[in-house]
Amino acid sequence: MKKLINKPEDVVREELEGMALAHPDLIRVHFDPNYVVRVDAPVKGKVGVLSGGGSGHEPMHGGLVGIGMLDAACPGAVFTSPTPDQMLEATKAINGGAGVLHIVKNYTGDIMNFEMAADLARAEGIEVESVIIDDDVAVQDSLYTAGRRGVGSTVLAEKLCGAAAEQGRSLKEVADVCRKVKDWGRSMGMALTSCTVPHVGRPTFDLPEDEMEIGIGIHGEPGRTRMKLKPADEIVEMLMEPIIKDIPYKPGDEVLLFVNGMGGTPLIELYIVYRKAHQIATQHGLKVVRNLIGSYITSLEMAGTSITLLKMDEDMIKLWDAPVKTPGLRWGM
Amino acid sequence: MKKLINKPEDVVREELEGMALAHPDLIRVHFDPNYVVRVDAPVKGKVGVLSGGGSGHEPMHGGLVGIGMLDAACPGAVFTSPTPDQMLEATKAINGGAGVLHIVKNYTGDIMNFEMAADLARAEGIEVESVIIDDDVAVQDSLYTAGRRGVGSTVLAEKLCGAAAEQGRSLKEVADVCRKVKDWGRSMGMALTSCTVPHVGRPTFDLPEDEMEIGIGIHGEPGRTRMKLKPADEIVEMLMEPIIKDIPYKPGDEVLLFVNGMGGTPLIELYIVYRKAHQIATQHGLKVVRNLIGSYITSLEMAGTSITLLKMDEDMIKLWDAPVKTPGLRWGM
Amino acid sequence: MVITRDKVLEWIKRYADLLAENRDYLTQLDAAIGDADHGANMDRGFKAVLSKMPEIADKDIGTILKTVGMTLLATVGGAGGPLYGTLFLQAGMKTTGKMELTLEDWINALEAGITGVKNRGKAELGDKTMIDALVPAWNALKQAAENGSNLGEALDRCARAAEEGMKATIPLVARKGRASYLGERSAGHQDPGATSSYLMLRAAAEVWRDA
Amino acid sequence: MVITRDKVLEWIKRYADLLAENRDYLTQLDAAIGDADHGANMDRGFKAVLSKMPEIADKDIGTILKTVGMTLLATVGGAGGPLYGTLFLQAGMKTTGKMELTLEDWINALEAGITGVKNRGKAELGDKTMIDALVPAWNALKQAAENGSNLGEALDRCARAAEEGMKATIPLVARKGRASYLGERSAGHQDPGATSSYLMLRAAAEVWRDA
Ligand SMILES: Nc1ncnc2c1ncn2[C@@H]1O[C@H](COP(=O)(O)OP(=O)(O)O)[C@@H](O)[C@H]1O
Ligand SMILES: Nc1ncnc2c1ncn2[C@@H]1O[C@H](COP(=O)(O)OP(=O)(O)O)[C@@H](O)[C@H]1O
Ligand SMILES: [Mg+2]
Ligand SMILES: [Mg+2]
Ligand SMILES: [Mg+2]
Ligand SMILES: [Mg+2]
Q1: Catalytic residue among B57, B61, B102, B284
Q2: Which residue's C-alpha comes closest to atom 15 of ligand 1?
Q3: What is the pTM of this model?
């Protein structure tokens, strides 16, 4: 296992310590239970926006805490949903009296833990709304399964909801923004390599030198199909076509195009992916009005990419453009 | 070779096309000769800031073009210095009448090509100053060799000089800022894996699963020594000690601490590196007044990190904090 | 033939040991169809439980089981945390104040625990989850008791049924939890949660056999 | 015994072919102590040169060599681009207007080229660069001419001296160029630039031998 870490069991704590040392102007890190919280939390009268999930997806979520985005994030062990007590404490820490939105990715563990936390918070008199992001078109949706995974749209939801909360919107209104992202965002990903979970010490799956996994999630799990490696343009087609067909996106739609790196993929490759994704979107008559290119929702050091399309309306564009100041995403301030 | 690319010979062109599609509000991309230029160039009366080098180090340099940073960047083939004609055209494109600064990394190829370009530009009546960044303490400095490589400080020089130029300082004053960075910045890097140059198709060097290279540059070249893999904290010590001893940095010095990823290293590991680097700096009495954490000067998909320390004075801190709006670095606007 | 409080503590200890021993095995199972953390998660949780043992050693069985449940909830995370947390919490509710358990008490406690898991996770038999080990195991336990088996025999039947249920998950296509994202590719692999549930019931059989 | 313009064009073509053939070999040499691009760079540059050949085929040798130099400058990049670009440019300056070269002309042209490389790169003999192939090769050429060797013989001596110079770079510790960053670790590897320089002079010997 080749990683810049000390002991596997210390990875999350030491990463959080690093973040605390690096960004005292933006965030505070609370240990036992672990959560990252905006330095000026709770902001009185403002809806609090909370997310969380396993570690290993950095900068999501802890690196997206700050002004105009998340008020707090709960990091679990690597790839493991955090626990209700963390979420409860973080919820309390960011409750400015206007309630708290929980942005939850659709994984059984995340959902159950957030459910319990929301119950506990409500029992303490805090208004909580939860929205579950499930945007991964690689997974067939069905009432009888766990449904689709929550992936790339989560980052976009955190930005837009954070901006809406910053404007002073009500809990219901902020949650409505999140529900719009849930409805209007779709993603799909692929991997060139597996990642290695620190405490496991070897790659989660073996992938021969000439093969790739299509339809992967963000936890190093294998994808829906394995196939021979293909040129980037063909890979992008394989990701974009199911995404566009899904809602479906229609000619004339204004979209945000998010090309995400899985952690081990350099920017030069992401721009090659973006090029083709933008071309395909345009060929389908979509208007790419905003974009995001970089490694924002990662899977440790996995090499690969995911693409997210989010249909945008005027309000969402304004929320996207609003100032944001977090360790991982920043503009306008 | 596992990469999200099409044909190896198309990598640079397609990446540039992707950038052009992604950031029409910030940059224009010129092909044949290739250069990336700020969308509103030339800015009248402002000193132009130009850098360039081989591709494969993204976002440096093309992703650092925009307001408050580079006016233009010349990308060469992967790991290959660009050519004088590119540099000449870019210099002309950004000359607003106040002259142009060339920020050059200390590699024989870069120096010779930039030298020729500066001669050609001067012949066309453009005032040019060149500053050579050579901050890599892994390489012993000597008058009789090529000297030290230019690495992490380059990114910092581009930010500070870009801000100085934006303020309307003269060419000499902007170059003075660059010379300060050259004098006050030191770096060292290490690799967990080799990268693979696209047209080569296999890793530049073989590194067994339990070994690492210390003192690498940014071109996939082997480092100064190879050794058994060690815990992150020990690795950081091996990088920090030679850096601190070099100038040397003295107790009380205010510094910017830049922890850089080599392209295949995820943020979670960079924060573990930052944690220890910050601790060591503090133990030496240095005051970390600013930092930068992320993959800004990369070596394709190489896994590894480099650390840069830059002594800061009040002016440099102000220049660092000044607004910047580029694809790869952005704040304040 | 009753299960004393000390035997309950011993069971928890034995289960913790089994989880530590099988940590890599469980993780490997989870790597194939999940995210390679089930072993580490359960082991972390039960290590935390062990460190709580001294505080609760003199409490009633209900308190002990509830403390185990709360500890798992706060330390395991993922799907395993809420599910095992709920199982122990609910079993603890059913045994409040008790200093020993009859076979019937244990049947009722386990039933409450399993019902909790079902309510929380909404998995059905055949979805390729821990339910596929727990439900047949409980059925076998109940059946054995109705047939007049003694405690040891009933617990053995229970553990064996859990083992069979666990193995029967191999050909299944997952419909719940992370493995469901793999669709057809989840077939051919044993479910990690069913495996950790079998270990739990095996530990009970081993430790309580000659109660 | 003179080198006609067509022979000069043939030489350039032959060198381009040799570079294409040895592209991977040169890259491999550069991977060991550099950045794995020398083969690709030189091949890219000479492919560009080949595409310019039709335009310059009816020009004088000076113009041809200067065009080669300018093309290399604009397409090779790295250290190779300015160095080989300068070499051909300077050699072209020395042969302006000529439609054929005597042995002496070639000696002077090559000397000018090498001087250009030295001025640009500031490398000395023994620094483990192309200079280590070029300088002994030129010395051998000059010596052969002084000893009255004919053109073919002199060019052979020149190529053989380049080959020896190239091989002699193996034990050297690099003091110039990218390989110098490796310090002691650069010893034991043959310099890629010395190798491409040897190929250039070998191509001349092959093509001009029986001019
Ligand atoms: N809805 C559910 N109901 C019951 N058990 C479930 C459910 N979802 C998952 N499981 C069980 O949880 C196990 C995985 O646990 P674990 O790896 O700890 O959590 P995660 O899937 O969050 O990584 C699965 O093997 C399965 O037995
Ligand atoms: N200062 C110099 N003088 C002469 N030749 C040099 C000098 N620096 C490097 N070289 C030659 O250039 C070769 C490397 O060329 P190339 O790989 O194309 O450029 P780069 O080193 O920029 O990648 C070396 O093998 C060496 O022979
Ligand atoms: Mg998990
Ligand atoms: Mg090079
Ligand atoms: Mg799991
Ligand atoms: Mg080279």
Answers
A1: B57
A2: C80
A3: 0.96
